[in-house]
Amino acid sequence: MEFAASQALSLGIELELQLVRAHDRDLAHEAGDLIERLARQQVPGAVKPEVTLSMIELNSSIQRDFAGLLAELEAQRAIVCEAAGVLNLGICGGGAHPFHDWSERRVYPAERFKAVTQRYGYLAKQFTVFGQHIHLGCGNGDEAVYLVHMLTRYMPHFIALAAASPFHQGEDTLFQSSRLTAVSAFPLSGHMPFVPDWTAFLEYFETMRGFGIVEGMKDFYWDIRPKPEYGTIEIRVSDTPLTVRRAALLAGYAQALAAWLLEERSHAPAAAVYQVNAFNRFEACRFGYLGQIVDPYARSRRSIGEDILGTAAAVMPQAARLGCVDAVRELADDVRRGYSDAGWLRARLAASGSLPDVVREACDLWAGRAAAH
Amino acid sequence: MNELAWFLPGWPPAFGNLLLFGVLLVAGLLGGELVSRIAGLPRVTGYVLVGVAAGPHALGIASSPLFAQARVFVDLALGLIVFELGHRFDLDWLARNRWLAVAAIGESVGAFCAIYAGLSYFEYPPLLAACAAAVGTATSPAVVMVVSQELRASGQITERMLLFTAVNCAFAYVALMLFMPLVHLEHSTTWRSAILHPMYLLAGAALLGFGGSQLLLWLAEWLGKREDQQFILQVALVVLVVGLARTLQLPVVVALLTLGVLARNLDYDHALLPLRFGHAAQLLFVVLFVLTGASLDFSGLQTVAAVTGVFVVVRFLGKALVILALGRLSGLRAGGAGLLSLSLLPMSGLAAVMVYDTAAIYPRFGAELAAVVLSAVAVLEIAGPLATQFALRRAGETHAQA
């Protein structure tokens, strides 16, 4: 397995989106109709099916910076929303639909997804959750392995900043992001083993393939994983935010953070990061900015919000060079104000009194017909 | 003897509405389940067949006056169905997708013209042919709603089938009302009643629906977003408007369709929660279809078989040609237009009611042409649900376990 070279710190994202019926705001089953319609149009990036007919996935093309990514996402959104409108479908962000019944989901009629359902049973339908994946270009495999280890320490940031799944099956979970629980159920979820370099990773991979446990990298549902075909690493812990803008902001922050880690190289990766990972991850999912994060390098503990603000300040020089100072600053401001998409969803429920109304407003927000602030 | 048996009911015992309701439910349930298990047919077809068995062509028990009293169940069931159908009618969708609006109206016009042409070929008088064509345009709201619920169908074909049904039912009524002055005049009533009668029916029903929708929205706002309370409210308003329409001799279907459409499209504050009538309403639907089956009239079928056949075929072709022509433009996927046309095949028991209403003021209609329409209703009440079920299954829009 070759690690394809790509331009270091180039950006790309995948966004899984909810398809919503107009009359009751429950999830629709019409991904096939929408994708067929979009296939006849010129859409920047790509639009792909996902495991159930209630989801579609938007892929950006490879971008150099935050501004280019945001412009492309906005163009994609306009086309996809227009096509969805013709079919009377709503589209919204958010990590999970607030009240859908997982047993009502229908699997996308493609061999790949049928195989997933055959293997994973009800988990496949329960996997109707919606995440954002951020790809960062890496020069080579060793750099990818280094970045995966180092970024793991910061995964709670990407959970808390994107958190947008407070409701599950009609109930408030008390979590900021309940989506990751659905991912954790899969046997190959979790994190990459603590390997020193790409050669060691390949050994691990070949062993797993030898056992017949995996066929390719896509079989690992890790929070963050190398993607050798693209020459990237892929951060997979974030919920799909409620706006394209926030999706682009997160990508900008990831880019600046990775640049800072690669330049500073302040310490070598430590296995301890994986010892505290489950705790940190839970805190971020449950409490968002208010959760606690244990820093295995500094051997200290503080709130995730403070940790984000500290990191945001540290990466500013890299952000300035990469053109994402405003993006990082905007996210930091949200942390100071305590704004999260999960909080917005809860506030809308308190104001409207019904989850279908929350979904309707989330669709307006996604389409750019309303503003969150 | 009489002294001793004072506690026994008189002979023959008087059967009440409740008993009738129970018998219809049990018989309908059995019929529906049997056709579903044995032949994989929609349960609706089973209910209808039970009704046919009880009807004048078989056991003949349906002619008892009790069946006339059961009319209240039919009105209620139909009220709920048509209200929900109206509530699914989304004007925003038509605004975003103009070709869909064109297709919905075009489908009605296509069916009307095709039937009119077909009947003209058999040299029926133009006015009679036009009335029959108007009646034939409507798809059965009850069949499409109940079959799609039974199959837990959801998707583009399902949504469009419901939308087109709402439009073609409205079209059928309005067209019939437009012809009514002419019918009146041919039957030598005065100009005044010729104009006033249809106006009273249409405007009265629309006003009643509008008033009901305002009351519904106002009360929903006041009650707040509580599902249990809103369920009672919505059923209550349906019963109220059905009752008022009956009292004022207005067409129930137009009033309830207006109520549903306006409750959806004038709900600017989103006061109304999405509807789920659920299992409780299913009870009424079983009775509705059994009674519909009992009222089917096959008596004329043999004598007018050829015209009936032409009626059914050209009606389908009229709908299908327009839908096929506009399918892609309105955003249907490949192959969707044919299935949508097929799903719209069921003809309404309502058509029978319209025929009787028209025949009441225009006896000439009652003769041969009524037999054609009633025979078509009878055929399509049984074949229609099969077409709808096939179309929705084939479209992949039904739930695997349904």
Report on this structure.
The complex is a heterodimer of chains A (373) and B (402). In chain A, helix 2 (66-86) packs antiparallel against helix 9 (244-264), helix 12 (304-314) packs antiparallel against helix 14 (325-337) and helix 15 packs across helix 16. Chain A has a single domain, classed as Creatine Kinase, Chain A, domain 2 (2-Layer Sandwich). Chain A has helices at residues 31-39, 66-86, 111-120, 122-126, 141-152, 155-162, 179-184, 198-210, 244-264, 272-275, 277-287, 304-314, 316-322, 325-337, 341-352, 355-367; strands spanning 11-21, 46-49, 55-59, 89-92, 131-137, 167-168, 171-172, 189-190, 221-222, 224-227, 232-239, 292-295, 300-303. The longest helix of chain A is centred in the first third of the chain and has 21 residues, at 66-86. Chain A contains 16 helices and 13 strands. In chain A, strands 1, 2, 3, 4, 5, 10 and 11 form a seven-stranded antiparallel β-sheet that branches. A two-stranded antiparallel sheet of chain A has the order 6-7. Chain A has a two-stranded parallel sheet with strand order 8-9. Chain B has 402 residues and is an all-alpha fold. Chain B is built from 18 helices and no strands. In chain B, helix 2 (43-54) crosses helix 13, helix 2 runs antiparallel to helix 18 (368-394) and helix 4 (71-87) packs across helix 13 (278-295). The N and C termini of chain B lie far apart (56 Å). The mean pLDDT of chain B is 87. Chain A binds chain B through residues 21-25, 28-30, 32-33, 36-37, 85-88, 104, 106, 109, 352-354, 356-357, 360, and chain B through 87-88, 90, 92-93, 96-97, 100, 152, 154-156, 159, 224-225, 270, 273-275, 330-331, 333-334, 396-397, 399-400.
